[in-house]
Design goal:
mainly alpha; 305 residues; Methane Monooxygenase Hydroxylase, Chain G, domain 1; metal-binding; 2 domains; Trp_2-3-dOase_bac
Amino acid sequence: MSADADPITRHTRSRRELEEGIERDFGRNLSYGEYLDLGRVLSAQHPQAVPPRHDEMLFIIQHQTSELWLKLMLHELTSARELLADDDVQPALKRIARVKHIQHTLTEQWSVLATMTPSEYAQFRHFLATGSGFQSWQYRAVEFSLGNKNADMLRVFAHDEAVQAQLEDLLHQPSLYDEVLRLLARRGHPVPQEVLDRDVTQPYEAHEGVLDVFAAVYDAPHEHWLEYELAEELVDVEDNFQVWRFRHLKTVERIIGSKRGTGGSSGVPFLRRALDLTFFPELYDVRTRLQDVTPEGYHGGTSRG
Ligand code: HEM
Ligand SMILES: N[C@@H](CC(=O)c1ccccc1NC=O)C(=O)O
């Protein structure tokens, strides 16, 4: 007999539930909690402070949610790199669009943490010992995927072989920018061979020849629309990343002022230096190179000044 036909079950279910057909018998199917493994997720908060401090739960959940979004971002970026390598540009653009929304969510999220005062944080900061964001391997993986390669950063993960191996692997893979430049070369743009053959484990260095390629694209967007769109998507991703870094910096500043970081850095001054980093240098240099159009019409090429 179905649950609806059973008079006892019928009477214990509210009229609204019956009308809407809401399912309550999850005995045989994978339930919401099982599917999401909520038992594990919701029992993974382990505050360390003794005596317990109210605000440590916020600190933990802020980090855990950030790590979940970083996991998805990495998933999307990995796929975007593979799609670009296969000349599947439109699906890659779709991945990048999702990355941008994740970045907005991560940036918005700082406002929740900013409700924590310096006094509240001081109640449990001591219990974090030398833990710090330096040890977020997923953050480092995102930086590597976008192109900020830095082999030194692997040292922090020496205690975790599996994680270190994963980062080492990413270090050796072409970044999103490397894949875009290779794609441009396949589409006939004169990307210098030394850029295409570069050692991808090294930090990317700006090249005049790549700037020339982007200058040609930005000079005549309608002739190179796909390249133009892709380039602007990358600029959006970098812009979003910098806004996240800036909000981290300002949140840290209002919570610990100019104290040194638990990870051993100078704290705010260290975070401020990261604002000068760029993943896609020529995409910013091209802004300077581009000449303004005069009232007489076409400006006749880009400036080298
Ligand atoms: C009260 C909150 C926070 C404070 C005071 C803080 C402070 C700092 C400081 C001082 C550093 C430099 C490393 C050090 O010496 O410790 C750092 C790095 C970092 N933090 Fe935070 N942080 C906070 C929250 C967060 C959150 C919620 C995340 C999200 C995942 C995060 C992610 C990172 C990352 C990824 C780095 C490394 C940045 C890099 O290498 O460029 N932090 N943080
Ligand atoms: N670096 C922070 C501590 C901190 O934020 C943190 C500590 C343990 C685990 C993650 C952390 N988050 C990011 O830096 C501080 O100096 O207060």
